[in-house]
TrEMBL record:
Family under the similarity heading: Belongs to the purine/pyrimidine phosphoribosyltransferase family.
Organism: Zosterops borbonicus
An example Gene Ontology CC term for this record: cytoplasm
A Pfam family assignment: Pribosyltran
Molecular function via GO: adenine binding; adenine phosphoribosyltransferase activity; AMP binding
Lineage, highest ranks first: Eukaryota, Metazoa, Chordata, Craniata, Vertebrata
Pathway membership, UniProt: Purine metabolism; AMP biosynthesis via salvage pathway; AMP from adenine: step 1/1
Name of the protein in question: Adenine phosphoribosyltransferase
Reactions it catalyzes: AMP + diphosphate = 5-phospho-alpha-D-ribose 1-diphosphate + adenine
Length: 179
């Protein structure tokens, strides 16, 4: 049953060789977003996983920009709020920021300093984990705010890049894995 639902999601992830640069096999989730049945199935699967794993969560934090496609619908399903972790220069007021590198470049992420209270329980979501640079940076920002990170959650994990090892002891979950 769950296998069938996972297959429905997997069938809507499209590989593009050599994007955005030579040597990168880009996993494109656009077909997943375009298919309402597959997208609903995706949110169903994530909701089931999170409900089964954590009795209480305060917020879903999502990573700019593809994490914004999944985080808010998942937070709505769970009846909780969403906190954006944005690329540099987009958030008003006091922020925490951090530079990081990812599979094909470098960037800087920010969170508003009052986004969560110390001790609040957060699940961080993104579409994909490659080297883990982006997710690690987001964890660091939430740690600075003294949030309790329950889990880092992604749709797609690129196993060969060993990004989950970078997360050390922070729990990690991926729906789909690719070598
Ligand atoms: C992509 C993807 C993840 C990140 C994963 O984001 O959405 O956030 O790369 O790579 P890593 O594990 O090596 O850090 P990207 O910065 O390309 O931008 P986008 O989400 O705005 O499309
Ligand atoms: N982000 C980092 N690496 C990626 C990949 N191979 N496909 C899609 N998004 C990515
Ligand atoms: Mg991203």
């Amino acid at each position: 049953m769950s296998e069938e639902r996972l297959r429905r999601v997997r069938d809507r992830v499209r590989p593009f060789p050599d994007f955005p640069e030579p040597g990168v096999l880009f996993r494109d989730i656009s077909p997943l977003l375009k298919d309402p049945v597959a997208f609903r199935t995706l949110i169903d699967l994530l909701e089931d996983h999170v409900r089964a794993s954590f009795p209480k969560i305060d917020f879903i934090a999502g990573l700019d920009s593809r994490g914004f496609l999944i985080g808010p619908p998942l937070a709505q399903r769970l009846g909780i709020g969403f906190v954006p972790v944005r690329k540099k220069g987009k958030l008003p007021g006091p922020t925490e920021s951090i530079s990081y590198s990812l599979e094909y470049g470098k960037a800087e992420l920010e969170i508003q300093s009052d986004a969560v209270e110390p001790g609040q329980k957060v699940v961080i979501v993104d579409d994909l984990l490659a080297t883990g640079g982006t997710m690690c940076a987001a964890c660091e920002l939430l740690k600075r705010l003294k949030a309790e990170i329950l889990e880092c959650l992604v749709i797609i994990e690129l196993k060969a890049l060993k990004g989950s090892e970078k997360l050390n002891s922070i729990p990690f979950y991926s729906l789909l894995q690719y070598d």
